[in-house]
Write a structure and sequence with these properties.
The chain is of the alpha/beta class. It has helices at about 5-10, 50-60, 80-90, 115-125, 175-180, 210-215, 240-250, 255-260, 265-280, 305-315, 345-350, 360-375, 380-395, 395-410, 420-430, 435-440, and strands at about 40, 45, 70-75, 100, 125-145, 155-160, 165-170, 190-195, 200-205, 220, 230-240, 285-290, 290-295, 320-325, 330, 340, 350-355, 380, 415-420. Strands 5, 6, 7, 8, 9, 10, 11 and 12 form an 8-stranded mixed β-sheet that branches. Strands 4-13-14-3-17 form a 5-stranded parallel β-sheet, with helices on both faces. A two-stranded antiparallel ribbon has the order 1-2. Strand 5 and strand 6 (about 155-160) form a beta hairpin. The longest helix has 17 residues, at about 395-410. The structure holds adenosine-5'-diphosphate (ADP) and magnesium ion (MG). It comes from Geotrichum candidum (Oospora lactis).
């Protein structure tokens, strides 16, 4: 296993970390260099106490002083628990892995619970790999390509210079193809990676600026580099332990990374990788970056999962585990005990608890207006006001989801501004949970019940439509 195969074959671990509903959040929104949250900053509004606590946690994480512990975000639905976890991860920097797992995902037919958790843990640990490559950087003087008469085989020469020197390189077929793909011509300043053959156009040399008219206004002009043509450059990739596992698991191969269909990974593979990564670390080739594993709806886990987490937190290679729950005192699954947040007491003992509380109308309004901006939807003042009321009476998430729908409704009547009528329409099209429960209780016979039976028709009676609970006029 070589470092560069891993680096080349793995997707970047920051890849899909942005969950759409939280795309407006870019950090915890703290005062510069302090632990104090601003009232509204980096997409975050209100929830100041919880954000301040999160800022302290963030600081502990940065100082590496939180090993073996976990954070529990506890609060009612839609009070920003996931948002705060996102905020922490954003503040840690873009190459710190953030993995989000809904506790129910652990229960699947393909993977055992512990395998699913192990994979999630290892996805959340980054390995920052340093690699040296040789690059050639200079201004192209001339490209000469000789095509053989039969077509296939190509040969060529590239003359390239810096302000101090000039050299001619022989070109192979692969390099000729990349030069023509990048449309490199004399006067371009390029960077050429010797190992991979990758060519990057850096711009046009200033010495060619008199060709301006022929180049068009988009051309970027750069200085011809000075010094040596060949340089060594250090490049850094961050991949997760899980990605390394998958690439090296002979039964899977790296294609499994794209399908996500990784199956169980043998523990010998993981042991070998831990040893190897340990060696790289010793040799200064790699650095371990504990990322964040966010486990949402953690009360859905059972006692076996909690024991696993308890043990995994003790491991040398542990990520920062942030859990969220909206349960109060409830039963721990798989036991007969009741405990706060449904967490077993030994785990509860390890966690730092941050609690979130419901938002004021004004805060809801601000968050909704940030969401509208993020989705590039223009809301009229009245529409925002009514959406805020919907948010207060249902949930922030529900009202935030209405923005997209209302925008489609507005587009249908060819308006670029979402107005009250569009919100009303969206509200009546899609139920919030409370109206859905009401609808179910009124039409219970028409649904498949626990015995597997349902009434399909009952004389001429039609299924009752829902009535809008709130009077939005
Ligand atoms: N303080 C906040 N500032 C900005 N947006 C927020 C805040 N709290 C919640 N949101 C947004 O509101 C929606 C619901 O919040 P979420 O974090 O999913 O709630 P929870 O995880 O507590 O159920 C999300 O789109 C989230 O990004
Ligand atoms: Mg959530």
């Amino acid at each position: 296993m070589s470092i560069s195969t891993i680096a080349q074959n793995s997707e970047s671990s920051k890849g899909v970390s942005l969950i759409a509903a939280h795309s407006h959040i870019t950090g915890l929104g703290l005062e510069e260099g302090k632990l104090q949250p601003r009232e509204s900053s980096q997409g975050m509004v209100g929830q100041v106490k919880a954000r301040k606590a999160a800022a302290v946690v963030l600081e502990l994480i940065k100082q590496g002083r939180i090993a073996g512990r976990a954070v529990l975000l506890a609060g009612p639905p839609s009070t920003g628990k996931t948002a705060i976890a996102m905020g922490i991860s954003q503040s840690l920097g873009s190459d710190v892995p953030f993995t989000s797992l809904a506790a129910s995902e652990v229960f699947s037919l393909e993977l055992s619970k512990t395998e699913a958790l192990t994979q999630a843990f290892r996805r959340s640990i980054g390995v920052r790999i340093k690699e040296e490559t040789e690059i050639i950087e200079g201004e192209v003087v001339e490209i000469q390509i000789d095509r053989s008469l039969t077509g296939g085989h190509k040969q060529g020469k590239l003359t390239i210079k810096t302000t101090d020197m000039e050299t001619i390189y022989e070109l192979g077929t692969k390099m000729i193809d990349s030069l023509s793909r990048e449309k490199v011509t004399a006067g371009d300043v390029i960077s050429l990676d010797k190992a991979s053959g990758k060519i990057t156009k850096l711009g046009r040399s200033y010495s060619r600026s008199r060709d301006y008219d022929a180049m068009g206004p988009d051309t970027k002009f750069v200085q011809c580099p000075d010094g040596e043509l060949q340089r060594r450059r250090e490049i850094v990739h961050t991949v997760s332990l899980h990605e390394i596992d998958v690439i090296n698991s002979r039964t899977q191969g790296f294609l499994a990374l794209f399908s996500g269909d990784t199956g169980e990974i043998r523990s010998e593979v993981r042991d070998q990788i831990n040893t190897k990564v340990g060696e790289w670390k010793e040799e200064g080739k790699a650095e371990i970056i504990p990322g964040v594993l966010f486990i949402d709806e953690v009360h859905m886990l059972d006692i076996e999962c909690f024991s696993f987490i308890n043990r995994a937190l003790e491991d040398e290679l542990a990520p920062i585990v942030i859990m969220a729950t909206n349960r109060g005192v409830s039963q721990t699954r798989g036991t007969n005990y009741k405990s706060p947040h449904g967490l077993p007491v030994d785990l509860l003992d390890r966690v730092i608890i941050i609690s979130t509380s419901p938002y004021s109308a004004d805060e809801i309004k601000q968050i909704l207006s940030i969401r509208a901006q993020e989705e590039e939807v223009e809301l009229s003042a009245d529409a925002l006001a009514i959406l805020t009321r919907v948010g207060q009476e249902t949930s922030l998430r529900y009202s935030s989801n209405l923005i997209t729908v209302a925008n489609l409704v507005a587009a249908k009547r060819k308006s670029s501004v979402v107005d009250v009528e569009d919100i009303k329409r969206a509200y009546s099209l899609f139920l919030d949970s409370e109206r859905s429960v009401q609808y179910l209780s009124e039409n219970v016979n028409y649904y498949v019940n626990e015995a597997g039976a349902a009434t399909l028709s009952e004389g001429d009676k039609v299924i009752k439509g829902t009535e809008d609970k709130m009077d939005l006029s």
